[in-house]
Q: What sequence folds into this?
């Protein structure tokens, strides 16, 4: 697999199950989005926290594998939920904080319009290091 | 909504989308499971990190709302990925570390057979406090 | 205690023990610094991780109590160590991510000259809520 | 430096500054303690959150370097503050969650008598990997 070919989430994987799309990817940057439907909700009608964690995890994993040689997998996902959402479109933008040989640390911010809904840090380890 | 009625993830919500089931729930304890299918994977054929974060988020949210009066929503989800999985059944068990009036902190451990795959801490805030 | 009077770390507290100083404080912003000495090191001669965590904890606690009514105490401190330091001056700048009635979430960045050494998120709870 | 020789925090380092002592260390286990004095406090007379983070960081770093070949440094310290302390003795016990070649993840629990005051996870990276 050439990292540079991963420009959309792969059909049949978890991201396609919940409707997560890559909008833009380049070195050290990825932007993704998701149109909120009722099956992203928890029972109170709010977007399930796992949706934000999943978006950040996927966006950052793709961004990290695109941006640097190696096979990068997440070892920690730390997501703060800032403001709840019920409907609309969630947009995730992620950039690296540190890109080492063995470890990368990225931050994702997830917005619904003007409002920031969640911030996530994901640390990745290089399986080839 | 009576908290004590929430003994299964609600149809049409995110947990039903990805096949997450409650096995046991009582005060200060919840056990859930998920049978791994290909649509839980990321492109390398491993379970997507967001699946673990989502299982922990849901299990702990249900456990916290079941165990204490209030309307509890997650404010932080911190998940460490310990060992990857490709197939089989994921079992999540969660228990509280602290149950305050304004804040609860729970820990979830997710196993695939004997192996621990992920550990997650979720902090919840009481919207009614 | 009037929150607005806390414009320097108090003599006889932990921050004075390890030489941590407030440089600037205003609503939603605090800047602190520390001149590295050998007693901030761990055995390899690098600044001890606990020094960064402590600086972030203190800066954010003062910033949060200064910026909003209430009695705010940290409930979680999550610090990523980006680049090690041996000598020089550490400068910490912190700003809020969210200021709710019951909970505040702030981020601190700690620099040594041009280099970012650590990033920390601290969540605080209002004891008076 | 032979890792097995590190059985006490080194004089002149940060741990000696704030009075942190190793009580017991063996493979995959370390126990440390600290007698609370007023210079461990923040202005409200409670133990400063940075003291708990520092204890966990140091205990786990020593434990990790003692337990496995390599040069291990902390890359993340995530500490939850459970119950505040004013006086007495803090006892920290730490054990590994995962010991990989490139990365170790440990958990520390800090007690004051019967009460748990803080729980901390520290992730370490092997500089020699």
A:
């Amino acid at each position: 697999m050439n990292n540079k070919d991963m420009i959309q989430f792969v059909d049949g994987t978890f991201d396609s199950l919940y409707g997560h799309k890559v909008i833009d990817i380049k070195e050290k940057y990825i932007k993704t989005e998701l149109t909120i439907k009722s099956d992203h909700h928890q029972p109170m009608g709010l977007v399930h926290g796992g949706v934000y964690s999943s978006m950040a995890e996927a966006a950052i994993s793709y961004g990290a594998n695109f941006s640097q040689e190696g096979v990068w997998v997440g070892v920690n996902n730390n997501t703060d939920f800032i403001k709840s959402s019920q409907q609309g479109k969630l947009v995730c933008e992620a950039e690296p904080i540190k890109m080492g040989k063995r470890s990368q640390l990225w931050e994702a911010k997830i917005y619904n319009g003007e409002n920031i809904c969640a911030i996530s840090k994901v640390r990745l380890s290089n399986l080839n290091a």
Summary: The first helix of chain B runs from residue 14 to 17. The domain at 3-126 of chain B is CATH 3.10.129.10 (Thiol Ester Dehydrase; Chain A).
